Amino acid sequence: MNTIHVDVVSAEESIYSGEARFVALPGESGELGIYPRHTPLITRIKAGSVRIETADGGEEFVFVAGGILEVQPDCVTVLSDTAIRGKDLDEEKANAAKQEAEEALRNAKSEIDMTRAQNELVVLAAQLSALRRYRKK
User: Fold this and answer.
1) pTM
2) Which of 22, 48, 68, 135 could hold 26 in an S-S bridge, CB 3.0 to 4.6 Å?
3) Torsion sign over Cα 115, 119, 121, 122
4) Residue 109, Cβ neighbours under 10 Å: how many?
């Protein structure tokens, strides 16, 4: 069977390491799909879901808040400051954080405060979307 080694790493820990048949993740210009023997690539990724089709036919989901993707013919590495396993996503916490970011946006006193709040909202919206995708599987 044709597989590729996948590592998803956050600033704190290794989130996933194993063999996969396929990996899908949100690239800056659209969804990327990676199969074994893919052409080498380094690119930034957006906040969203990393979907890993494991060697045994199962699926793993990981939420990443953006980061860097490196692809080699036999290895995929995803580096992200924040990465959360699909099973560990907490909808209640994400919704509370989204409300706080919306409040911060309403109360922004400078362009910098507004930009920070908008960026936080983008990441939280992607996290809630990832959570919904994970629950559908």
Assistant:
1) 0.76
2) 48
3) positive
4) 7
